[in-house]
Prior knowledge:
The chain is 53% helix and 15% strand. The protein is built from six helices and five strands. Helix 1 crosses helix 3. The relative contact order is 0.23.
Amino acid sequence: MTRFVVDCGVVLHLAGEDIQVSDEHELLAPTLLRSQTLSALHEAVHRGEIPPDVALDRLAGIWAMPIRLLGDAVLRRRAWKFAEQLGWAETYNAEYIALTKLQADAFVTLDADLARQVEGVVPTATIEALRA
């Protein structure tokens, strides 16, 4: 079994495109994923990009995904250290990196800039690696 940490953009893409993740994989994310997906979909509705019913259906699909959410004190301390190491003011992305370092085989993001920034820090994978 391969363990992947997935970020908000990946989860939104999986839900929006109805992509099925292989049963051979375990998905992990920091607990902040809940708030990020909720906010991202609400913002999309607010901007008029998607109707509210579509956003709520995607949220239901996301909440039904078998993603193990973690957020203990060890993760938060490691996230702080990674934010410092990488020169980031915010710690949100650092939580994904810390979780990857602590418990996963690779980090999956659609953010090419973020993937570039974490080269050599944690292994990354493409969204294609998740497909069933």
